[in-house]
Design goal:
286 residues; acyltransferase; Ser_O-AcTrfase; Ser_AcTrfase_N_sf; transferase; 9 helices; 41% helix; six-stranded mixed β-sheet; serine O-acetyltransferase activity; five-stranded parallel β-sheet; 15 strands
């Protein structure tokens, strides 16, 4: 089970359409299957993969397990064993399917290139890396560190994204492109955060213990941003491209530069992770 986050970072997981999580999952699963059926006609050459990955599966959890196994299975841990491992994690953790649904919906809402659920489900590295991390995270908290680290290693090798299985990540998280993303062991990421390519959430120096960033809800981490050390990025904040953050970031501000400093203030109701707007804004700055 994923441990409970600190109160300021506790994931809230609201329903997608004022319905239960189960209903939301059923809606997404039904739409994904409909898209898969249409794709069979659109691209017959890919029909076998779509049939096996989605239409032959009985649930979204089974489909995720099958797809992840085919992308992460290797000579050390065969696809069949990886599928069983992924499915065990999704079925044992009651939050896993709800998280996966919100992660998938987040991509659909925030990525202008995404026009259907099928595309990120089959092809997007960020979604695959995040759901595979969730499998590793479950393993880590089952005391199966060796397998958890194997999953981390495969995520890094296949998707170019390194997420420690002990990190704590909420739902509705969008990892765009994923290439070069590094998330350290004691990192905590709340719900509805957007992370672009080459972002590092790392340590600062050789200290041990709790040494990685805490990212609050609704934060946008732009391309190449580096947040280093046990510091907090406040809710609704925006970290500009290539910024190097070494101190706490106040909520609802934009920080930029090396080292990063506040360059503008944002309205309290603005959610940069949802709008994906990477401009600095017209705040007063400090």
């Amino acid at each position: 089970m994923t441990p409970t986050l600190a109160p300021a970072l506790a994931p809230t997981q609201p329903p997608l359409r004022a319905t239960s999580r189960g209903t939301a999952e059923a809606e997404v699963w039904a739409e994904l299957r409909a898209e898969a059926e249409a794709a069979l006609i659109e691209e017959p050459l890919y029909a076998g993969i779509i049939q096996a990955t989605i239409l032959d599966q009985r649930s979204l959890a089974q489909a995720f397990a099958y797809r992840l196994a085919h992308r992460l299975g290797d000579g050390d841990l065969a696809r069949l064993s990886m599928r069983d491992l992924c499915l065990a994690a999704f079925e044992a953790d009651p939050q896993a399917s709800a998280h996966a649904v919100r992660d998938l919906v987040a991509i659909r809402k925030r990525d202008p290139t995404c026009r259907r659920y099928l595309d990120p489900f089959l092809f997007y590295k960020g979604l695959a890396a995040l759901e595979a991390y969730r499998v590793g995270h479950w393993l880590w908290h089952q005391g199966r560190a060796t397998l958890a680290l194997h999953v981390q290693s495969r995520i890094s090798e296949v998707f170019g994204c390194d997420i420690h299985p002990a990190a704590r990540i909420g739902s509705g998280v969008f990892i765009d492109h994923a290439t070069g993303v590094v998330i350290g062991e004691t990192t905590v990421i709340a719900d509805d955060v957007s992370i672009l390519q080459s972002v590092t959430l790392g340590g600062n120096g050789k200290e041990s213990g709790d040494r990685h960033p805490k990212i609050e809800r609704g934060v946008l981490l732009s391309v190449g941003a580096k947040v280093l050390g046990n510091i907090r990025v406040g809710a609704g904040a925006k970290v500009a491209a290539a910024a190097v953050v070494l101190q706490d970031v106040p909520p609802h501000t934009t920080v930029a530069g090396v080292p990063a400093r506040v360059v503008s203030r944002l309205p309290a109701d603005e959610e940069p992770a949802l709008t994906m707007n990477q401009s600095f804004g017209d705040g007063d700055g400090i």
